[in-house]
Design goal:
Number of helices of chain B: 3
Oligomer: heterotrimer
CATH architecture of chain B: 2-Layer Sandwich
Structural class of chain A: alpha/beta
Largest sheet of chain B: 5 strands, mixed
Order of helices and strands of chain B: HEEHEEEEHEEE
Distance between the termini of chain A: 25 Å
Number of strands of chain B: 9
CATH class of chain B: Alpha Beta
Largest sheet of chain A: 5 strands, parallel
Structural class of chain B: alpha/beta
Strand order of the largest sheet of chain B: 1-2-5-4-3
Distance between the termini of chain B: 56 Å
Radius of gyration of chain A: 18 Å
Radius of gyration of chain B: 19 Å
Chains: A alpha/beta, B alpha/beta, C alpha+beta
């Protein structure tokens, strides 16, 4: 019998949820999905100055072990089909950060015939980070917003927030 | 500048091939060129490559240009000689309805990929090419994008190619 | 090597009836060391490849067609995206093509600013190339060193033009902004700090035994092959051909500057192997520092941007302009029909030629050597696909 989303909202159960979320948001492993220019800024963000490792975020090569896919760069139509395959290969719970204008909406390549205008046409996006390319500080803020989103998830507690009776 | 100048190169071409090579166009070093008849292209290229004083050992750039007003697709060959350090350009006009140009992949190995690109984006068929297929666009893409009358498809494998702007006037 | 001995044993143990099959693997398009979205279809017999066929087009953003829609001035930001790792030479190529067609002369100070920006871009790009090459081979520390040094160059260039990666700094007729006050001293201080670090990187990896064993003698390219397959830049110079567009087809103010053109000599292996291409990049960084110092010393006063009409209409015609980008001779074939929109722009890049050669180079290499070859040819996907 599954325990997920069954408990009433009490001090104890919310603490369990907060603990689970704290462990998960402090260790997000992102898949290196660097497509174009934003990939260079993603590498700089993972570098010594704007360090992502202090958040517990480590780059992984394969989708099978990643929690997060940072789509950094322009998505062409040829690549969009493969992006869906890679997203499906990631195990749940998974998140998507769309980094840069090209991944958000096509960016300055909306005039192109071969570009998919935005990665949210193929996979659902959690956080959009604007910029062309976004500075490391901007990407870091986007990832901190993702951490906020993760900290509000409910695993043990019922999702409708019913309080404990008696 | 070392090497022969464009007029000298053109003079040797005209002396050897006569009418198959047109007049010298372009006055500067970076745009000196001559139009060549498609049937004579391979012979002209072989002459330019093997002749000692010319020695064009590199096909630096291969582009296709669509001229719907003249009803041709022009293929431009920018040649360069590393031995003598002189450039020259050849232009070949192909009919727009069914453009066919002989392939020079046997003379310069990299021309294989360059010609595949011109085929992919403009639809020019290169006769004698070992493996002519699309290189940049997906295999099942309809049409040749760099033509002036290319119309973007509405969708590709279920992904629509337009995006509604959030900035409404 | 031991491979032949192993095969002999297997033959003996199985009476020669062991059935084997080649593997066909798809490497990419998402792969940490393909330097962007490239795909290789690898046919391998165990670890040794029969061939690796490249499959490109995953980053084809139709930049050449967009030029026909956005106009002469509007195309400048797109030129950054043609090679985002070294974006300044791309800006310069486009600006020079438009200036050549219209007969515009750039002021002297503008030319010097362009050269300084281009040489910083070259150092920027070579650091990333060398760092990611070391990471692909397996050494992860030099990559963080390279990223750290790139941050300082990012700071300097951000002061000049406001952007860290896709600069949009040059304009048709010059550059957009003059150098800020006190920038000259900061740049000189950085070069003073950086030049000894090149020696430190040499001590760290260049002559490291493991690094040399991975690179020396792998995929040598003869000078004749390099020219026939259209290789340019450090790839061509690594094979011993002493050709540099800045020296042999000079443009801008390079005739007034003194610098050497390093070539590979096959010092630790065969001429034209991966190590030669790598060491040429290390030496080029030193030459770029030399050029920047001379430029900062000789910088004249005056304007940085010539007067160019906003509705820019060069006369009809075509030209083929070449600049020395970090990845080699970048050619811009531009056709104008006299209107304010370019008629055709064709960009000829070094990485397109380099990747076309991989099918030939990959016979009988191991899969790990393929990674070394890709890294040593310094491929970037946007140059290949445009």
């Amino acid at each position: 019998m599954s325990l997920i989303n069954t408990a009433p909202e009490m001090a104890l159960t919310t603490k369990v949820d907060d603990f689970l979320n704290w462990t998960r948001k402090s260790s997000i492993w992102y898949m290196m999905f660097g497509l174009a220019c934003c990939a260079i800024e993603m590498m700089q963000t993972g570098g010594p100055r704007a360090d992502l490792d202090r958040f517990g975020m480590a780059p992984r090569a394969t989708p099978r072990v990643s929690d997060l896919i940072i789509v950094s760069g322009t998505l062409t139509l040829k690549m969009a089909l493969r992006t869906k395959v890679l997203y499906d290969q990631m195990p749940d719970p998974k998140y998507v950060v769309s980094m840069g204008s090209c991944a958000n909406c096509g960016g300055l390549f909306q005039l192109a015939y071969s570009v998919c205008d935005g990665v949210d046409k193929v996979i659902p996006v959690d956080v959009y980070v604007p910029g062309c390319p976004p500075r490391p500080e901007a990407l870091t803020e986007g990832l901190m917003k993702l951490q906020e989103k993760i900290s509000q998830e409910r695993w043990l507690v019922r999702k409708d927030g019913a309080a404990a009776t008696a | 500048m070392p090497g022969l100048d464009a007029a000298a190169i053109h003079a040797r071409l005209a002396a050897r091939f006569g009418d198959a090579v047109g007049a010298l166009e372009g006055a500067r070093r970076d745009n000196a060129s001559a139009t060549v008849a498609p049937a004579a292209l391979v012979a002209v290229c072989r002459f330019l490559q093997t002749e000692d004083a010319l020695a064009f050992d590199c096909l630096s750039n291969l582009s296709g240009v669509d001229y719907p007003k003249r009803n041709v697709i022009q293929v431009v060959y920018n040649l360069y000689s590393y031995r003598h350090r002189h450039p020259f350009a050849l232009k070949v006009d192909a009919a727009r309805e069914d453009p066919v140009v002989p392939s020079v992949a046997a003379l310069w190995p990299h021309a294989e990929w360059q010609e595949r690109e011109v085929f992919d984006l403009l639809g020019v068929r290169f006769e004698g090419h070992p493996d002519l297929r699309r290189i940049l666009m997906p295999e099942d893409w309809p049409g040749h994008p760099l033509r002036k009358d290319f119309v973007e498809p509405e969708e590709y494998h279920g992904i629509s190619t337009s995006r509604e702007s959030l900035l409404k006037a | 090597m031991g491979l032949a001995g192993f095969e002999v044993e297997v033959q003996r143990e199985t009476d020669g009836v062991l059935a084997t099959e080649d593997m066909t693997l798809s490497m990419g398009p998402q792969h940490p060391s393909t330097h962007g979205v490239l795909r290789f279809v690898v046919r391998a017999d165990g670890e040794v490849m029969k061939e690796a066929i490249p499959d490109i087009g995953y980053l084809h953003r139709s930049i050449e067609k967009i030029a026909e829609k956005v106009g002469w001035h509007g195309f400048m930001p797109y030129t950054d995206r043609v090679d985002y790792v070294a974006a300044m030479p791309c800006n310069q190529g486009w600006a020079m093509a438009a200036e050549r067609l219209a007969g515009i002369e750039v002021p002297k100070r503008g030319e010097y600013c362009r050269v300084i920006a281009t040489e910083f871009s070259r150092i920027h790009s070579h650091l990333l190339s060398v760092g990611s090459m070391a990471m692909d081979i397996g050494a992860t520390t030099p990559f963080t060193h390279a990223i750290r040094e790139r941050e300082y160059i990012n700071d300097l260039i951000e002061e000049v033009c406001g952007a860290r990666l896709t600069f949009n700094y040059m304009r048709i007729g010059g550059v957009a902004w003059d150098l800020p006050p006190a920038w000259r001293e900061k740049a000189l201080a950085y070069i003073d700090r950086f030049e000894p670090l090149i020696d430190e990187y040499d001590r760290l990896i260049s002559y490291n035994k493991i690094y040399v064993e991975r690179l020396a003698g792998v995929a040598p390219i003869t000078p004749e092959d390099a020219i026939a397959w259209n290789l340019v830049g450090p790839n061509l110079r690594g094979s011993g051909v002493r050709f540099d567009v800045r020296r042999d087809e000079p443009y801008s103010v390079y005739p007034e500057l003194e610098f050497d053109v390093p070539v590979g000599r096959g010092e630790l292996g065969t001429l034209g192997d991966c190590f030669d291409r790598y060491i040429v990049r290390m030496r080029e960084m030193r030459e770029s520092c030399r050029i920047i110092r001379q430029c900062l010393r000789q910088l004249p006063g005056g304007a940085v941007l010539a007067k160019v009409p906003r509705n820019f209409k060069p006369p009809a015609g075509d030209c083929y302009v070449r600049v020395e980008s970090a990845r080699g001779d970048m050619g811009w074939y531009v056709v104008s029909d006299g209107t304010s929109f370019p008629y055709r722009v064709k960009i000829r890049t070094g990485s397109f030629a380099a990747i076309s050669m991989i099918q030939k180079l990959s016979k009988n290499l191991m899969i790990a050597d393929l990674i070394a070859v890709i890294a040593s040819l310094d491929l970037v996907a946007p140059e290949i696909d445009r």
